[in-house]
Design brief:
CATH class of the largest domain: Alpha Beta
Order of helices and strands: HEHHEHHHHHEEEEEEE
CATH topology of the largest domain: TIM Barrel
CATH superfamily of the largest domain: Glycosidases
Largest sheet: 5 strands, antiparallel
Strand order of the largest sheet: 3-4-5-9-7
CATH architecture of the largest domain: Alpha-Beta Barrel
Radius of gyration: 20 Å
Helix content: 25-40%
Shape: globular
Structural class: alpha+beta
Distance between the termini: 28 Å
Number of helices: 8
Strand content: 15-25%
């Protein structure tokens, strides 16, 4: 509802800043995706959803390689004064250490402030000194070098999204329309300009979901612009069984 409100009410009145992450928010793949079994798929899905909207997308450091929230064991390992004060305040009011750490692991601001993970060397290649926060322990698997070596990585997916935005005026100027407003699994919308339409379909959950194309969407040709799973070109889009966190974008004519 919030994203659609930004798209419709700012149309012709202002320009959107499109973002999932910043220094005060937890990592998006940990917040709205699955940062374990479906880390790559859900990170790509979230990127797809945002990058086809009208506005200027912001990519927060580490988002493009799927960096995740961190789980420090002790409150002493956190720097964020808000999290530290919150912890001690709640402890005084009867909450347990485990309860408070679960909350901070989920929503703490230091999740977005850990050093960028460049490679699998000490401190993830960020510094030869001591970083202000400990590096996320998953840096050996999630780092820039590893992403650059993998043609199917989140990083290269972002490059494709940016290229599509630069090459298609419809993504910049097209009208936005939300589809399936009451569907609690699928976020789908169209962008329309002249006789062209872009259809964006994403499954927001880690379970399969059925997509049924609304009857009022007419087209003669379809072209798959991008997807985070392999998709058969001849597959009909009238009824789709979407895989966990699947994202597809079609050009319709």
């Amino acid at each position: 509802k919030v994203l659609s409100k930004w798209q419709t009410e700012l149309k012709g009145e202002g320009w959107n800043s499109l973002f999932w992450n910043n220094h005060d928010l937890p990592r998006i793949v940990s917040r709205w995706g699955n940062d374990k079994e479906y880390r790559v798929q859900s990170a790509k899905m979230l990127a797809t959803l945002l990058h086809f909207m009208q506005g200027t997308p912001y990519i927060y450091q580490g988002e493009e390689i799927g960096m995740t929230n961190v789980k420090y064991e002790s409150i002493d390992e956190y720097d964020d004064i808000e999290s530290v004060n919150y912890y001690y305040d709640k402890i005084e009011n009867g909450y347990t250490h485990d309860e408070m750490m679960e909350a901070i692991w989920k929503n703490g601001r230091d999740n977005a402030r850990t050093p960028i993970q460049w490679n699998d060397s000490e401190n993830a290649g960020f510094t030869k000194g001591e970083p202000w926060l400990k590096v996320n322990p998953n840096y050996k698997d999630v780092n820039v070098n590893k992403a650059l070596e993998d043609e199917g990585s989140i990083f290269y997916y972002y490059k494709k999204l940016i290229k599509l935005r630069k090459e298609n005026d419809i993504i910049v100027y097209g009208d936005y329309k939300l589809l399936l407003e009451d569907n609690d699994k699928i976020f789908a919308y169209t962008r329309s300009l002249d006789r062209e339409k872009i259809l964006v379909i994403v499954n927001f959950l880690e379970e399969e979901a059925e997509f049924n194309l609304p009857e009022d969407i007419d087209f003669n040709e379809k072209e798959l612009l991008i997807s985070n799973y392999e998709v058969a070109k001849e597959e009909s889009i009238d009824n789709l069984n979407l895989r966990p966190y699947e994202a597809r974008v079609y050009r319709l004519k």
